Amino acid sequence: MKVEFNYGTSVLTLPSDVRKYIKSAGKNDLAVILALTDGSAENVSSVASVCGITEAEAAASIAFWRGAGIISSADGQQSVPVKSAAAKAPTPKPYTMSGTEIERICAENPMLKTTVEKCQMIFGKVFGTAEYSVFIYLYDHLRLDCEYILLLCSYCKKQGHDSVRYFEKTALNLFDRGIDSTAKLEKYFIDESRRGELEFVVRRLYGMGDRALTATEKEYLRVWTSDWDVGAELVEAGYEEMMKNINFPKMSYENKILKNWHDAGVKTVEEAKQKSFISSGKGKGGKTAEAPSFDLGEFFDLAVMRGKAESENK
């Protein structure tokens, strides 16, 4: 069917990736994304008012779209209310609650109920009591907010994992590593993406092929991306500097080079050149490669003459 739009005096523009979520998005989600696109809704309360839904439903839909990577907070603030932080506690495996317990908790926390329903749509599954118990544990015991849960759920799905068991193990692992807020989780995803890109470069430079990286090699990549914010170009430059001084590449050696650059505030190859960290025409040990002290043509001429003299004396 072909239709024509009567745009009037203004239009709404949506990211094309919204189409990927039309099947999994609910009625409220679609209403919320349109309200957000219009720009008139400035907070959860106003979104709920425009769409004619509760604040909990509006917050869950906002978290759904943020988890899908369609929207983000322009001011860097949380777009969804966050539960007050609790003291860190051990993270034992969630126990399976009874259906009655789950109904009671969801009734007390409507936003949690909506969040779990969104996760069911993302994974394309209907959760039982065991799966519900996992989400309740993350929300109620670990104090992970609904936006965090939806963001991680979407990430797992994009990575090809739609198992709640995989989602649970990932969430507990991240929590134990101190990644316990939506802001930290977003940074982790960015770092992971950059680490993957840098790993491709390192494998090519070091001729690693498809072999698994050692724990030490993984740590170097983590430090370069997360701690030092080193880009691929700087890693390549560091590799070239390293090979001017040793015969075989060693990540430990390049790590020292990159650390020196990081400590000096170097972020780009151009800055490394300006601060004389990158030089040209250097040989092993950092010394300038000198031209041979003999002439190759003269050497071969002498060799020929010597051969003739030896043959005449025989």
Order of secondary-structure elements: HHHHHHHHHHHHHH
Discrete helix count: 14
Alpha carbon gap, first and last residue: 100 Å
Summed up, the domain count is 3
Portion in beta strands: under 5%
Mean pLDDT: 80
| Helical amount | 55-70%
Number of strands: 0
Descriptive notes:
With 314 residues, this protein is an all-alpha fold. The protein contains 14 helices and no strands. It has helices spanning 27-38, 44-51, 55-67, 99-108, 110-123, 129-141, 146-158, 164-176, 182-206, 215-227, 232-243, 251-263, 269-274, 296-312. Helix 3 packs parallel to helix 5 (110-123) and helix 5 runs parallel beside helix 7. It starts with 26 loop residues before the first helix and ends with a helix.
Describe the structure in brief.
By secondary structure, the protein is mainly α. 58% of the residues lie in helices and 0% in strands. The model is unreliable at 75-90 and 282-296 (pLDDT under 50).
